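Checklist before submission:
- one chain only
- standard amino acids only
- sequence pasted in full

Submission:
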Amino acid sequence: MNLFKPMLYVLFASAVILVSSALLTNTPDIEAGDLQVSTLLEKTAINPMLISYTPNRHWAYILTSGSNDVTVYDLTINTLTNVSIAVGSTPIDMAITSDSSTGYVVNSGDNNISIIDLSTNTVTGSPISVGTNPQGIRITPNGDYAYVVNADDNNVSVIDLSTNTVTGSTISVGTNPMDIDITPNGNYAYIPNMGSSNISVIDLSSNTVSTTISVNSNPTAISITADGLYALIAYEGSTNITKINLTTNTVSGPTYTMDAPFLRALFYRNT
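Returned file contents:
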């Protein structure tokens, strides 16, 4: 299969950052700058697939639909730069280290990860080979590992960031995993599986699936709230959001329907 990020990502492309359990009142927190960046981008020729912020909030890195490069946006002066970083085929996700020094770009067309030195905005080293049709990447809070979901292999690759090499065995999850997020305490990773309509929960202390949570059909994106209490699940071709209680790993409350700005803020994140 040749799965790409669903239209939800294309239609509601923006940046994401802090979301709290204010979603309980259907009003998640959104940083004002995120929507400002979105508005500016919509006025340019860029069609962003994903925007990844550096944690120091100086730069935004834009993965563009139909392009095999990453464009740099200067957040300090709200200006799109002329810097374009060539990466692999069909870049679809990016994670940035907590010190804002390195970016890891998922190239779904090449089945690998490009490494960008963000001090020079140049690709460094050789690409890291992962599984088939990788779709999402997240870095653990301690910065030791990156986890990559491979949609066509139904598994997750683990990259040791001290050596930038894949380590250990892949972790089997559900069918067609499409995204990943990690709890703020670094204990668990949550993966929406579009083909099996469930969420795999990986215990990161053992790199094994500890539980599976059934959700609606075709889950494609996930964002864990900043307080670590909930995971928010989005679906292909839908503006519905499911909330999962991470204390009990059960679906909590009703399904929410959210407008585009909230979806933008929830599902375009930096790390």
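Reviewer check: The radius of gyration is 17 Å.
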